[in-house]
Design goal:
With about 675 residues, the protein is an alpha+beta fold. It contains 21 helices and ten strands. Strand 3 and strand 4 (about 390-405) form a beta hairpin. Helix 2 (about 55-70) packs parallel to helix 5 (about 135-150). The chain starts with 12 loop residues before the first helix and ends with a helix.
Length: about 675
Amino acid sequence: MNSPTTMVHKPHWMAVLAAALLTLCSITLIIGWHVSPLFPHDINQHAAFFPRSHTVVIMMLASITLWLQCYPAPFRHRLANRAFRGLAQGLAVLVIIGGLLSLANIFWGLDQFIDPYLLTMNWQAYLLKTNAVSLLGALGFILAGASLLLLDRPTRSGRYPAEYCALTMAAVMCIPMMGYLFNVQALTEFAPVPAISRQAPPAFVMLAIGILFSRPAHPMMSILLSPAPGGRLLRSVLPVTLVLLVTLDLLAKWGAGRGFYDHDMISPLALLVGSALLLVLFWRAALMLNHEYGSRLKGEAELARTHELLRIVSDFTTEGICVKDQKGCYIFANPAALSILGKDQASVIGHTSAEVFPDPDVATRIEENNLDVLKEGKAKSVEFPIDLPRGQRTYYLTEAPWFGQNSEVLGSVGITTDITDRKRIEEAMKAHETRLENLVESRTLEVRELIGHLQTMREEEKRAIARELHDDLGSSLTALNMHLAILFQQMPNDVGITERIVQIKALLQSITATKRRIQSGLRPDKLDIFGIKTAISDQAQEFETYTGVTCSVSLPDEDIQYSSQVEISLFRMVQETLNNIAKHAKATHVDIILDDNDEEIYLTIRDNGIGISSQKLPSNSTHGLRGMRERVVYLGGTIAIESAPGSGTRIKIKLPKFPQGDGSATAALEKTGHPA
């Protein structure tokens, strides 16, 4: 049951109009009585035709209360709304008290105690009998106050007593209205109390209508205002029927009074005309109901077709479809879902996942996924396995929220898909990818092993060529130099011959220097004799001599000795880097730094040249850089190139002090199961 303090109602415009008219009329009468008499002094003779002052005052309180109750929560703050409702309920209590005091005055003559508590009118000085409230007026105010006080307080069965009080008030006030309308005095007063004034019953009826329409969502008014056939029938037939009955009776009496026919003809004429009009009204109502019935049959047929289509889709799909309520209980499961669960309809409907799934871990995961869907209002997915007689199957469950008309979450709708075959394919693909990666890695190791072997063979060939240049060509040039020296001594001292001898000696020295340079380029003798430190220093000095670029070398203080493979690789990388600097860097200074520790060797070469652009840096497209990278990777090291346009280039190389060489590649190949 909803609390009256939390429900917000939107009043019907008729409730606001009724409250406004009643308040305006009451205030107008009260102001007129205080300012100047609006009626002649002989009003005592026609007191029954004018509203009594106490009636007007209490009616004003009731209309103001109705106005306040039309807007139960006009403010944003809860305390302000609570105070506003308290004021409305207080005025409703005053209306009830006014009716009770009026009853006490009628039965026990307590008028002298009532007048001091009600407004004192100028009219009271010369209208001694017009202040008292009639019996019907007192009963009407009690019912009106009770209706306004209990407006938002339903019973346990969901009914509102305020509606019944308002209807009772309207029914009671229809009695004097009919009395005044048809001049039946017995219906306007109950002796010996004064009769109710002519204007009071319509005001009470208007107040009752305003009270009913102030809460259009309550049960009775929801029927009247409903777009359903019942509501439309009430709105179209009931008011017209009442108006026609009253109009026919008045016209019949008016015709008899004018002499158009005798008084004995009133009832037959009223019966005939009323029957004809009622026949037309009910015929129209029947047509409307038939139209509504046809529309309903058409809608039911469309709904049945849609339901049948959904049933066919649900029954013949291979996907499991299930629906849960807010409590997580299954309220629908198609045959595919029942087949997945291995249960019948009765074992699933009305039960939770914890009661349906045999595996508690799977049930917990599904329950948590369902709670997340209900809480967040978004679709969620979960993957779970189920052991079936034909083997374990893997399912993918997607649950989406089920929204109502007011966007509230009523439950969840889940679709379960069997992804066992897809999972097997994915696992097979992963295994294939793993084998492919291992194969690529093994082939890469083979290629690197081959490149390393080719580099080793190339260095050996260079060493052999350098040795042949030194042994054969060097000895031949030395012998030639000796023979030419002896020959030059025996030749005559002629100017032309002397110049030719000088040219021959210069050419011989140039050939010898070229031989030494080629021999040093192929295999520096100092690398084999003095080690890597001397080889790098001489290479830097030679680079500075030929290019004019200053070159600083930083080497370890202690004597160092690496394997021949590491030393020749370090030397070749220094040589290649200096060649690239001379060709492309446009540098004026180069730093070569060699350092090591117990396990690793660090070589850093940096310049202050133009640098390498960011687009060309990642590619390492030159053969020299690619060869350096292959050497480093083959030895198990790393190389990093840092550069920016205008900021020079830094090459950082890190090698293991004791590389595995061929052994690492062979071991890797044996591990992958591929022959080298």
